[in-house]
Amino acid sequence: MQILRTPDACFGELPEFPYSPEYSEIDDDDGGRLRVAWVQAGPLDADPIMLLHGEPSWSFLYRRMIPILTAAGHRVVCPDLVGFGRSDKPTRIEDHSYARHVEWMRTLAFDVLDLRRVTLVGQDWGGLIGLRLAAEHPDRFANIVVANTGLPTGDIPMPEIWWQFRTAIQNLPTIDVGRFVAAGCRRPVSDEVRAAYDAPFPDDTYCAGPRAMPGLVPTTPDDPASAANRSAWKTLASSETPMLVAFSDSDPITGAMAPIFQRDMRGAQGIEHPVIANAGHFLQEDAGEELAEAIVTFLRGR
């Protein structure tokens, strides 16, 4: 597997993100090694909150949430998915698979960091990957927060706007990641912040991850990931692990999943689920403070 590593100089000007990255090398499932990056903050002896970002963002997305969560006494661990942020970037689209991304995050979370009593916060692909981990390793998780995400099996059609996004990001000659993030927000995104989302991708050779991820979402019942996702959904539906459903009010991509999580998940019953107002798909960017406060309130009651 051929990889690229974004030069450190690309991350020199990051607003509101003073956290120094940590790194570990893991197996790439192809006979080689990948360097995976994460940031962490808060007391190391506290139960961890694992913040998983999605497509095409990186851990910078959680910058407004980390201070609120750590001020409440929580340890925060925020990885960059392989192909994103400061993590290594396989150069071929075919190097990416749903199963590999689950395994890469499993290796980091459990083999490298040995996280236990985890509170998962998953948005977009952070939920697609994190919910698989929570279902397949239930002994490691104490709580789950789903935020503008899902666990698709290909049995329900994806919305038209998602197909438009998939077509665009797969076919554009170059990808303006900052523009895609801004388009998924309701509130203004400054040029400085847009540049921070662009930082991991100095040119299009680094963009196999963003191009690959939409094609890995199961859209037919016989997709390679569909059976594993059905099994995970079944496990989570009967799980007593507390689940907070914290979706925004303006996400045309995943918004329809909020009432389904609230209805179908045993762990979501009897919990007051917030709706984050005036926020789009990237609710951490639009309303990170509000989402973080909702998580703090949820965990205070556990």
Automatic annotation (TrEMBL):
Domain (AB hydrolase-1) spans: 48-285
Task: Note the SUPFAM superfamilies from the entry.
Answer: alpha/beta-Hydrolases
Q: Is Hydrolase set as a keyword in this record? A: yes
Q: Does the keyword Hydrolase apply?
A: yes
Q: What Pfam families would the database entry show? A: Abhydrolase_1
Give the EC class as a word: hydrolase
Q: Which GO terms describe its molecular function?
A: haloalkane dehalogenase activity
EC assignment? 3.8.1.5
Keywords attached to this Swiss-Prot or TrEMBL record, sorted alphabetically, are: Hydrolase
Q: Which InterPro entries match?
A: AB_hydrolase_1, AB_hydrolase_fold, Epox_hydrolase-like, Haloalkane_dehalogenase
Protein name as catalogued: Haloalkane dehalogenase
Organism of provenance: Mycolicibacterium lutetiense
